[in-house]
Amino acid sequence: MARRSLFGGLVTLTAAAAAAAGVCYLFKEEIRGTETYKNLNEKYDVDEKIKTYSAKAKDTAFDLKDKAKAAAKDIKTKVDEKKAEKDSEFEDDEIIIDSDFSEDRDYVSIKDTDSSDSSFSETADDSKPE
Q1: Cα–Cα distance between 77 and 84 in angstroms, integer?
Q2: Each residue's pLDDT tens digit, 95-119
Q3: CA pair distance 33, 11, nearest whole angstrom
């Protein structure tokens, strides 16, 4: 009756798997020495594939890192060159004026004026709102 229930079937299956694993463990050296095991190990050697691909990934990463450093240096050099060109246009804070405006400019002389001048007070009185 125990065999016909779900639990009984799981116990039977577990016991059979444990027995097979025990036999394989006892004869593991003989199993590793067989030709079939060696062929399967060469065909599906996961550890070797992992080592190969990890080495390729590391090499690629180092190459990309070197390329990135070289590109960063190139960009920095170009920026410094542009900055030097821009700085060389106006050295020592020069102000460059294209034409001479001195002919068009009116100059007013500043002289001491008497503050009691009536023309200033009349102009000020005229501009006041009433």
Answers
A1: 10
A2: 656 555 556 666 666 766 555 555 5
A3: 33
- Per-state percent for the chain, helix, strand, coil, to nearest 5: 70, 0, 30
Q: With contact defined as beta carbons under 8 Å apart, do 3 and 12 qualify?
A: yes
- d(CA 31, CA 127) in angstroms, rounded, equals 118
Largest CA distance in the chain: 133
d(CA 100, CA 97): 7
In this structure, which amino acid lies at residue 128? K
Q: State how far the Cα of 68 lies from the Cα of 60, in Å rounded to an integer.
A: 12
Q: What is the dihedral of CA 80, 82, 83, 88, to 10 degrees?
A: 120
Backbone angles phi, psi at 79, to 5 degrees: -65, -40
Using a cut of 0.90, tell me whether the model's pTM lies above it: no
Contact 80, 74 (CB under 8 A): no
pLDDT, one tens digit per residue, over 4-35 is 788 888 999 999 999 999 999 999 888 888 88
